[in-house]
Inverse folding.
């Protein structure tokens, strides 16, 4: 197999998902679209695609989910919000919707990711994927950090590769990719490199004032270093079910939780945030009536920002799963969760835990942060697909731990 072809296609996959070069002109979305189309074209022309039989259930769910995104995107072209004017809180924002092509682009990206990863797994070349992702993510965080330190904020979102969350989360992802890349090479991660990546992430999260990344990195480092004692938690499905359930219930019962003294002390004295979670509790109160708007198919991928700005004057739902529901409706939200459950069950029983553990730490962190941020999206679904990026034909045994 031509390694240059695999390197090129891995680069295209990375840029179709994780890189949004923002200069205010929209070029970032164009680069993502071109990368996705180029990757699909190369795989089709070279006939480098293969769906593995052991993923029949996962593949069916992914295909149905992507078809659902196509349907949602088509339906979102003609959203009539006039009937919802009674829900507006007096803000003067105009209703501007994202292009319906965004949902189609994300559907193609998700589907292509699963197809490409299964192809790499079938030829035992997943090491190239994680090597490329680690080095490219390292390149982008170094350049982006330097640009921020030397020039300051740039573009509409402030940073070279998007907003502060995009940059800070890529720091964590680079750290995770490094550990997986080390596993693929069958070597112990270098302590100096690990410490360097941790320090870079912590410093950037402080400079960018991204508290979620600061806490998330500390949690991931803790989990990495306490795998023998607490690692089993990540391989129990109920862990993720409980977290996601709490995320939804928090919107309805946050007042009971925030009335607990120890919680108040942690938020105010440790995180140095206000007790309203920087205004999130007010957003949660206003969200309740919105949840009945287009419950089955949602308002369309990328439209929660515009719809909530129009109705409530806020940027998003400040809750990952609820934001996903508002955009993709109950139909695709359920399919999203079913894909994760199917992948998780397969990984738990059939793939070495040493490989899947770093990715599960990242996914768990995003589910936890999803309590107060919009981290549960199609980009995370692509990360979930990496769990099955394993060289199945290379190993004749199943390693449970």
């Amino acid at each position: 197999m031509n390694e240059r072809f695999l390197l090129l296609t891995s680069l295209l996959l990375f840029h179709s998902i994780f890189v949004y070069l923002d200069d205010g002109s929209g070029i970032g979305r164009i680069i993502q679209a071109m990368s996705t189309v180029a990757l699909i074209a190369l795989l089709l022309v070279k006939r480098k695609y293969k769906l593995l039989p052991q993923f029949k259930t996962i593949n069916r769910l992914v295909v149905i989910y992507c078809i659902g995104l196509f349907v949602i995107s088509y339906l979102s072209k003609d959203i009539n919000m006039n009937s919802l004017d009674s829900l507006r809180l007096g803000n003067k924002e105009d209703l501007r919707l994202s292009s319906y092509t965004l949902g189609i682009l994300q559907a193609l990206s998700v589907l292509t990711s699963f197809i490409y990863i299964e192809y790499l797994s079938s030829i035992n070349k997943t090491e190239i994927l994680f090597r490329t992702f680690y080095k490219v993510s390292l390149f982008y965080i170094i350049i982006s950090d330097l640009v921020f330190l030397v020039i300051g904020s740039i573009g509409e979102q402030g940073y070279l590769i998007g907003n502060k969350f995009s940059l800070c989360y890529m720091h964590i992802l680079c750290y995770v990719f490094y550990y997986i890349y080390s596993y693929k090479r069958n070597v112990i991660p270098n302590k100096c490199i690990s410490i360097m990546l941790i320090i870079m992430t912590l410093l950037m999260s402080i400079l960018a004032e991204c508290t979620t990344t600061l806490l998330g990195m500390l949690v991931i480092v803790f989990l990495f270093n306490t795998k023998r004692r607490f690692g089993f938690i990540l391989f129990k499905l109920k862990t993720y079910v409980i977290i996601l359930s709490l995320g939804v219930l928090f919107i309805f019962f946050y007042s009971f939780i925030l009335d607990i003294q120890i919680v108040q002390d942690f938020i105010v004295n440790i995180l140095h945030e206000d007790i309203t979670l920087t205004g999130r509790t007010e957003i949660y109160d206003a969200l309740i009536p919105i949840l009945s708007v287009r419950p089955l198919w949602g308002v369309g991928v990328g439209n929660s920002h515009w719809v909530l700005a129009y109705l409530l004057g806020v940027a998003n739902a400040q809750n990952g799963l609820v934001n996903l529901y508002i955009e993709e409706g109950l139909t695709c939200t359920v399919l999203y969760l079913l894909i994760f459950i199917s992948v998780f069950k397969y990984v738990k029983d059939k793939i070495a835990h040493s490989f899947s553990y770093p990715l599960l730490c990242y996914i768990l962190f995003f589910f936890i942060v999803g309590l107060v941020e919009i981290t549960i999206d199609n980009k995370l679904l692509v990360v979930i697909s990496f769990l099955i990026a394993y060289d199945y034909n290379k190993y004749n045994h199943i390693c449970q731990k």
Observations:
- Residues 396-401 have pLDDT under 50 and may be disordered.
